[in-house]
Amino acid sequence: MKYAELGAFLRSRRERIRPADVGLPAGPRRRVPGLRREEVALLAGASVDYYNELERGAGSQPSEQMIAALARALRLTADERDYLYRLADRPVPVQGGAASHVHPGMLDLLGRMPSTPAQVITDLHVTLVQNPLAVALLGDQSGLRGPRASFVHRWFTEPDARRLYPEADHEGQSRSFVADLRAAAARRHAKDPETGTMIRTLLDVSPDFAALWAEHDVAFRRSDRKRLLHPTLGLVEVNCLNLFSEDGRQRLLWFTPAVGTDSAGLLELLAVVGTQEVVVESAVSSPTRTAGSPPRRRG
Description:
The protein is α+β, with helices and mostly antiparallel strands and 299 residues long. 40% of the residues lie in helices and 12% in strands. A five-stranded antiparallel sheet has the order 2-1-5-4-3.
């Protein structure tokens, strides 16, 4: 009965969304104002056959990752997202992790930035969703789970994570990450298990983190000028801007070319270069892809 209700709920949410709401062209001969099934499947990174089975109330139990992708594709509210998890007999994820609900307004803004690298991350630097240009610039971060989902965790535990920045910038980035993490931890509940576990782990395994943490610097990263190393384009200098959610737990990041550099032309090339030769930050990543992004290509 729950799976039948899950299919009916998905269909009702699909039918209320206009293609323009999710950045798709209306196209000719559209009989209904809502999305087509194949469009939802594309946005969620699922096969059309699999999504059709879900709407029919059949098929296998959807994974937590698939539910999160469907919730984002259908622009569900937090209550609707939680309801979808329960219909699928999956535990509702704790806010702050890799399956966190992304506010539909942030997704809408992300969809309106097709020519700008942009992504939504948590206050612990867990990437929730990326647009195609962010994947091309930074690598696909959609398949990471557990502690490794946080870029701050990978920064202090995996040397390869630092290849995104020139070596001369590593110390400054480390300081910024630690100060930002301290600000995020203070904003969260004192007994928040995710933050506490992350800080204790980094104190145990990273002398670099422990030394910086002992300095007690605190500062949210509201804007930055970054130098990024792209495997094909080389050094790209960008301004990294942030839009925070009301509770501060999520932020929309977007990257603009730094004035006085040739980065504007380099960012325009990203759409051509795509993700053919992007160095993924993690040594091991899932074969899944970001909702709404094109399939990953390997050079």
